[in-house]
């Protein structure tokens, strides 16, 4: 197993996305002071689950996110991914290549993934147990850490040797099992205490149980009475409903009869109204005929009067003619 590549984006001084490829034969990263060599090591430690900002040479975890410069704005998150060659299956996972990634936001929220699948920090820690790789493994040794190991307590050096020997996983499993066993033991003690307490309360509980039985019996009788009352009420309401429906049926029939009578009267009224309107029209026609006849009569009377005057005039003319004729005859004689 060996480290194939490191992908860094927004982590500390790496504002741009950078990928470090490690081919066979590469044993180190060199560069001038301030070029970011230590930040690469911090990135590896961080992606493996380091939770201490102090170990990453910062005051708080937010410090690992690119904080910006005069010419660039700060970024909102930091991302690191390492890819390991696992063709020898040193890691207990069925992949020849393993990519572990971590992302952190300024809100403090973190995301972990193994080969693109979201996971927990615990999953990453368990993956690297007994491999020497991890935030506390011997594969990452910072400045001054060797002196710290040599001058440290025997227990601290023992932890490093246990990691190298590959027994840390078993020790952790043992500690977890012992902790679970102790928890079960304490639970057993508590169960025994509870049993003793319950035994002392058994007699009062029996009395309470008897009272509870009586209460339940009364409650059952009450339920039966309530049910009987409910059924009687339902029967009464049903009878009232039937009576109401019967009355409504009678009323509907009466309304139907009244409605038919109304329709008949309405029809008769409409016929009378139509007849009245026809008679009114006839009356108007007769009135108009009378008026027309009256006008004709008046006209004829006027004409008769004129004719009479003309007749009188003619008669007068005849009389004058006769007189003139008689006078002329007398003169002739």
What's the structural blueprint in terms of helices and strands?
Elements: E1 2-9, E2 18-21, H1 37-47, E3 77-85, E4 97-105, E5 110-114, E6 117-119, H2 121-127, H3 145-150, H4 154-165, H5 168-200, H6 202-332
Antiparallel strand pairs: 1-2, 1-3, 3-4, 4-5, 5-6
Plain-language structure description:
By secondary structure, this protein is of the alpha+beta class. Helices cover 60% and strands 11% of the residues. Strands 2-1-3-4-5-6 form a six-stranded antiparallel beta sheet. The chain is elongated. The model has no long low-confidence stretch (mean pLDDT 84).
Under CATH, the homologous superfamily of the domain at 2-152 reads: P-loop containing nucleotide triphosphate hydrolases
- The strand order across the widest sheet is 2-1-3-4-5-6
The number of helices is 6
Record field, number of beta strands: 6
Report the CATH C-level class of the domain at 2-152: Alpha Beta
Portion of residues in beta strands equals: 5-15%
Kindly report the CATH topology of the domain at 2-152: Rossmann fold
Helix content: 55-70%
Q: Please state the second-level CATH architecture of the domain at 2-152.
A: 3-Layer(aba) Sandwich
Low-confidence stretches are none
What is the 3D form? elongated
Determine the structural class based on helices, strands and strand pairing. Answer: alpha+beta
Residue-averaged pLDDT, rounded? Answer: 84
Order of helices and strands: EEHEEEEHHHHH
Our measurement of the CA-to-CA distance between the termini, rounded to an integer number of angstroms, reads 189 Å
Whole-angstrom Rg: 62 Å
Main pleated-sheet profile: 6 strands, antiparallel
């Amino acid at each position: 197993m060996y480290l194939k590549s490191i992908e860094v984006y927004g982590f500390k001084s790496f504002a741009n996305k950078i990928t470090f490829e490690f081919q066979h034969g590469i044993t180190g990263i060199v560069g001038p002071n301030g070029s970011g060599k230590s930040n690469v090591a911090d990135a590896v430690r961080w992606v493996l689950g380091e939770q201490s900002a102090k170990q990453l040479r910062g005051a708080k975890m937010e410090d690992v996110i690119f904080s910006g410069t005069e010419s660039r704005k700060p970024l909102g998150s930091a991302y690191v991914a390492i890819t390991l060659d696992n063709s020898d299956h040193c890691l207990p996972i069925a992949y020849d290549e393993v990519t572990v990634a971590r992302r952190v936001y300024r809100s403090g929220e973190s995301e972990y993934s193994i080969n693109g699948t979201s996971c927990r920090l615990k999953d990453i820690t368990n993956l690297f147990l007994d491999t020497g790789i991890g935030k506390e493994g011997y594969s990452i040794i910072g400045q001054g850490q060797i002196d710290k190991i040599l001058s440290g307590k025997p227990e601290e050096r023992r932890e490093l040797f246990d990691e190298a020997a590959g027994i840390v996983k078993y020790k952790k499993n043992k500690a977890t099992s012992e902790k679970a066993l102790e928890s079960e033991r304490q639970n057993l003690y508590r169960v025994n205490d509870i049993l003793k307490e319950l035994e002392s309360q058994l007699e009062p509980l029996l009395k309470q149980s008897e009272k509870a039985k009586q209460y339940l019996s009364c409650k059952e009788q009450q339920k039966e009475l309530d049910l009987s009352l409910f059924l009687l009420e339902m029967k009464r309401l049903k009878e009232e409903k039937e009576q109401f429906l019967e009355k409504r049926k009678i009323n509907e029939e009466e309304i139907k009869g009244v409605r038919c009578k109304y329709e008949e009267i309405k029809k008769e009224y409409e016929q009378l109204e139509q007849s009245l309107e026809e008679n009114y029209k006839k009356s108007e026609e007769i009135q108009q005929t009378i008026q027309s006849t009256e006008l004709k009569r008046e006209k004829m009377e006027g004409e008769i009067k004129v004719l009479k005057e003309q007749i009188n005039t003619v008669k007068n003319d005849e009389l004058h003619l006769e007189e003139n004729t008689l006078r002329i005859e007398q003169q002739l004689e």
